Structures are given as structure tokens and as C-alpha cells.
Amino acid sequence: MLAETVIAGLLLASSAVAAPAPDPLTFIKRAANPGVVIQKCSSPGMLALAYDDGPYQYTSTLVDILDKAGAKATFFWTGTLYGCIYNQAAAVKKTYASGHQIASHSWTHGHMGSMSESQIRSEMTKVEDALVNLIGKKPLYMRPPYLETGGSFLPTMKSMNYKVITNDVDAGDWNNKTPQQSQQSFQQAGTSGNGHIPLMHETYSGTVNTLTPWLINWAKQNNLKLVTVAECLGDAGGMYQAGNFTGNGKNTC
Ligand SMILES: *[C@@H]1O[C@H](CO)[C@@H](O)[C@H](O)[C@H]1NC(C)=O
Ligand SMILES: [Zn+2]
């Protein structure tokens, strides 16, 4: 996708300017910084399955498939895109209780690259309020809808302390790719180098019921550990803001 290409180019250009003698830890140090775009894991030997756009009708099934395989994954959820998040309260609680990472994908799935700072903040705090009401936690990770990171977006994420995740492999399920075509994208990306953080959507039955079992098997055959995005960045314990929160029950869809 164009946006990713531009981001990758910017990262390359800025590191070339900033570090005449390249520091091999540069990427990892950056990955720890809020408001900086992260596309892949900071170590090899892992795969961070990451699903956007839920919670939805397949969430519970997906958690069962992952749990049966001993896999951990990351869920980038919105408040309203596929119905109200509160309508999926049981699936939300089940996902959290199973130890998967719950992260934000904004409240309405809008174009945050062209929103004002106050609109962007509202998109993020509404998801926080809902997750506090449902699981007592506020996420520290997010993926922007449409992978849009321009305008006021990144500075606002930095000031809100959010780690911004995009992707380095695109399953293309959002663009009518079949699970078989998505599998080819993973095979082309390969299993060497730092772990992948793919773009996938839990809102397609093919992604949940066909692609995910294939990926679990692919990871097993290639000795890749299936981990959360936080773990693949060396921060397994840092999925959420510190502390437990009590909801006020006021946030609604
Ligand atoms: C938050 O809640 C969990 C689960 O009840 C508990 O284990 C943990 O100690 C709590 N953390 C804080 C900071 O209160
Ligand atoms: Zn999305």
C-alpha cells in the first residue's frame, strides 16, 4: 500500500541522516517510543498475528482456535465499526481472560490523518472508556485505520503515550484476497529476519477459519512462536497502562 511505502521511505531516510555510523539498536530503541510507527517485531523467530476491526461475530471462534494452538495474538478493536463494542461484551472479556493483547483501532474507524487533535483524542479516549468498562484496562498500543499516520496523528499519539503499529505483511483480506492468496503473501515474506506483524481482519470468515489455522501450522513448521505485538517488541508485560481502572458506565455507542 502506498502509505506503508511512504512510511518505510521516511524511516530509512531519517535513520540515514541521524546515524552516520549505524547503531544496530536504533530500530529497537525507536520501537519503544510512543508516537513512532512500528512495522515489525524487534527479534526473529516469532510471528505476531494481529487482527483489526473487531470485536465481531467471529471473535469468540478465533480465540478458541488460537487458544487450542497455544498461540497469543493481538486484537485492534474499534468501538462502533461492526456494531457496538458493548454488544460483544462476552467475547471481549473472553479474549482478555485468555491473555491475548487488546489494542485500539479508534472509536469510529475514521480518517485520523485528517482529524483535529481533539477529534483524535476523542477517538482514543472513547475506546479506553469502553475497555475500562469491559475489562478494567486501557491499551498502550494502537493501529490507525487505513494505516493513516499524517497530520496531527503521530504527535497526538506521542502525547497520549500510544505505541503505533502498522504492518510489514498485508493479508489483503480487506481487498478480496482469498485465504490462499493471503498464504502466498506470507510465503513470499518468508520466515527469516525479524518477526512479521501482519495486517489481517477478524471480520472475514476466511481469515478466521482458513487463514489462521494455516498460519498456526506455518509457524509451527518454521519454529516461529506466535506472540502478542507487545511480546514481539520485547515488552510482553507492557500491553496496558499501569493499574486497574473502574468504569463510570457513561460511555455508550
Ligand atoms: C489489577 O487487577 C489484577 C487482577 O485482579 C491484579 O492481579 C493486580 O494486582 C491489579 N493491579 C493493581 C495495580 O492493582
Ligand atoms: Zn480497520
TrEMBL record:
Do you know which Pfam families this protein is assigned to? Polysacc_deac_1 (PF01522)
This entry's Gene Ontology molecular function terms read: hydrolase activity, acting on carbon-nitrogen (but not peptide) bonds; metal ion binding
Q: Where is this region: Disordered?
A: 175-194
| Source superkingdom | Eukaryota
| Coiled-coil regions, chain positions | none
Q: Which UniProt keywords apply?
A: Carbohydrate metabolism, Cobalt, Hydrolase, Metal-binding, Signal
| CDD domains per record | CE4_ClCDA_like
Q: Where is the signal peptide?
A: 1-18
- The residues covered by the NodB homology domain are 45-227
Gene Ontology biological-process annotations: carbohydrate metabolic process
Name what cofactor the protein needs: Co(2+)
InterPro entries according to UniProt = Glyco_hydro/deAcase_b/a-brl (IPR011330), NODB_dom (IPR002509)
Q: Which SUPFAM superfamilies match?
A: Glycoside hydrolase/deacetylase (SSF88713)
What is this protein called in UniProt? NodB homology domain-containing protein
Q: Which organism is it from?
A: Staphylotrichum longicolle
